[in-house]
TrEMBL record:
Stretches the record annotates as Disordered: 1-29, 130-149
UniProt KW keywords: Repeat
Entries under Pfam families matching the protein: SMP (PF04927)
Organism: Urochloa decumbens
Keyword Nucleotide-binding (UniProt): no
Biased composition (Gly residues): 133-149
Name assigned to this protein: SMP domain-containing protein
Amino acid sequence: MSQEQPRRPSGQPQKQAASGEHGAVRYGDVFPKVSGGLAEKPVAPQDAATMQSAESLVLGQTLRGGPAAAMQSAATANERKGVVGHDQATDATAVQGVTVSETRVPGGRLVTEFVAGLAVGQYLARDDDATAGGRGAGSGGAARGGGGAAGMMVDTTKVTIGEALEATALAAGDEPVERSDAAAIQAAEARATGLDANVPGGLAAQAQSAAAANAWAARDQDKTTLGDVLADATAKLVADKPVESGDALRVAGAENRNKGDGTARPGGVAASLAAAARLNRDEAVWDQ
């Protein structure tokens, strides 16, 4: 993820009022209980994308009316005002990140969402609210079937590489596939399958073709997006496995090496696998 602070477009005043027609929508406006430096920071589009990715990993979807949705609305308003750019993230999320955690309680789980270590939302997800494809409250893991062409059995209490890739499709699905995305997807597929070569017609092959075509596409609307490639990623993988720290590190390295500025895309493939690895590690602690 980029660790640069969001830059205002040239011609914008260095400081704007916290409210009013031309003022930025800040974290303190969206989440009144947030205090300190975070409260004064404008909500950026990639902050919202990262939170969407984290929510989808835990809940199987973006929560309607939840923190990610609120951040998306604020970020859209800020982008329209020229306060932040579409690809920008604040230093709070780029450095300290966002987290969605869950704690088992009788009858369900208590879900808490954090930005830069500060809680921005908390709610109870009951067992009978769990939906197919979401994370089952009782198991603490994502509900999933056989998964993969070989019907490989996976630990259903953990987020898999395929599911992390699908989370990317939700969080950054409208973004055109770039060379760095293709490299990250190739690394993720290799970690999931254990194969050194690309699977013919697989995710990596599709991503590489998309990145090459996008480099020559004259219009953005003609470009293949991450959502086009990564939708139903679990079903497209010939094998799948729970995300581990080593998987996330390998994917992050591949993405960073192939990005011009050496940074991962906020809400992208590396970010989603990092969030999944962190969630899986926390699940292991809770299960002890």
